[in-house]
């Protein structure tokens, strides 16, 4: 069974940067599409970014385009989310996710991380 472990969350001021990591200690890591969801208090868990198994294509929700970058290192079984120019509305618990499906949605996720909290505040 695949287990996802996120790290890198914390407190940052508006305009600052954070980098998140998700480690998947599984030999078939390179067969999964990977990505990140986020959920703010009282709101839905929504997709933020995704990257195909090969790393050849990426997707971002409109609100983070130009600010966030998703990447992966299949040799290290790790997916990353670099977050720049952070805004207070980015505050949420960020969840790493893995799927073999071609559909990037909560229902298609095979494995979740437990989440890491990102707080953007002065």
Characterization of the model:
It contains no helices and 11 strands. The chain is mostly beta strands and 122 residues long. β4 (33-39) and β5 (46-51) form a beta hairpin. The chain is globular, with a radius of gyration of 13 Å. The protein starts with a strand and ends with a strand.
Topology:
Blueprint lengths: L4 E3 L2 E3 L5 E6 L9 E7 L6 E6 L6 E3 L7 E6 L4 E6 L8 E8 L11 E2 L3 E5 L2
Distinctive features:
122 residues, mainly beta, four-stranded antiparallel beta sheet, 11 strands, 45% strand, globular
Provide the succession of SSEs.
EEEEEEEEEEE
Radius of gyration: 13 Å
Report the end-to-end length measured between terminal Cα atoms: 40 Å
Q: How large a portion of the residues is in β-strands, by DSSP E?
A: over 45%
Q: Based on the structure, what is the oligomeric state of the protein chains?
A: single chain
**Average pLDDT value?**
94
Query: Structural class, please?
Result: mainly beta
Given the structure, what is the number of helices? 0
- Regions with pLDDT < 50 over 5+ consecutive residues? none
Give the beta-strand count.
11
Largest sheet: 7 strands, mixed
- What helical percentage do the residues reach? under 10%
Shape: globular
In short:
The chain is mostly beta strands and 122 residues long.
């Amino acid at each position: 069974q695949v287990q996802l472990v996120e790290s890198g969350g914390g407190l940052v001021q508006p305009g600052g940067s954070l980098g998140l990591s998700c480690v998947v200690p599984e030999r078939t890591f390179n067969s999964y599409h990977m990505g990140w969801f986020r959920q703010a208090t009282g709101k839905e868990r929504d997709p933020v970014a995704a990257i195909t198994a090969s790393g050849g294509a990426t997707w971002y929700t409109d609100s983070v385009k130009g600010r966030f970058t998703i990447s992966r290192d299949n040799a290290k079984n790790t997916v990353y989310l670099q977050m720049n120019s952070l805004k207070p509305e980015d505050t949420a618990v960020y969840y790493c996710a893995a799927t073999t499906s071609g559909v990037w949605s909560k229902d298609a996720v095979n494995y979740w991380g437990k989440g890491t909290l990102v707080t953007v505040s002065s």
